Amino acid sequence: MRSETATNKKRVVLPITRMNVHDGPGVRTLIPFKGCPLRCLWCSRLDSQKAEPEIAVYPNKCIHCDQCIAVCPLNAVHLTNGTLSIDRSLCNNCGKCVLVCYSEAIKLLGQPMTIEELLKEAKKDSLIYKHSHGGITISGGEPLIES
């Protein structure tokens, strides 16, 4: 039986993928966790290595509104020669730039969720599991690491 503390503990998860057919039999819900200490050279999910939420930049989506630059308290966001970038040595992942980015050129990767919240999300697809003989795939990062 899980303790109350373990049940309420939040783990950081990347966006949940529904209708996945590549990670097991049937139609599946993929739940990718963040956090992995291994740093494998062949890792296909570099965004899952750090355990905490982190800011990702997609310069090709930037519409040059400069809202992210104006809101950054540490002057870590830059638009140089039309290319959006973040100075990681200054950025503290506060997420203020993410909140004002209309075009989603800056996104926060990872959302803390409890086991109950994850199960609630996965149960939304239970009818699909029943008819396709699918289920849930837990991936990572390292899903079993305690952060």
Strand order of the largest sheet: 2-3-9
Which structural class fits the helix and strand makeup?
A: alpha+beta
What is the CA-atom radius of gyration, in angstroms? Answer: 18 Å
Termini Cα gap: 20 Å
Round the mean pLDDT to the nearest integer and report it. Answer: 90
Low-confidence regions: none
| Strand percent estimate | 15-25%
Work out the helix count.
5
Count of separate structural domains: 2
- Major sheet attributes: 3 strands, mixed
- Give the topology string: H per helix, E per strand: HEEEEHEEHEEHHE
- Helix content percent band: 10-25%
Shape descriptor? elongated
Topology, number of strands:
9
Describe the structure.
With 147 residues, this protein is of the alpha+beta class. It has helices spanning 4-8, 67-71, 96-100, 115-123, 126-132, and strands spanning 11-13, 17-20, 28-32, 54-57, 77-80, 83-86, 106-109, 111-113, 135-139. The strands form four sheets. The protein has a three-stranded mixed sheet. A two-stranded antiparallel sheet has the order 1-8. Strands 4-7 form a two-stranded antiparallel ribbon.
Q: Main attributes?
A:
two-stranded antiparallel sheet; Alpha-Beta Plaits; 5 helices; single chain; alpha+beta; 3-stranded mixed β-sheet
Outline:
The protein has 147 residues and is of the alpha+beta class.
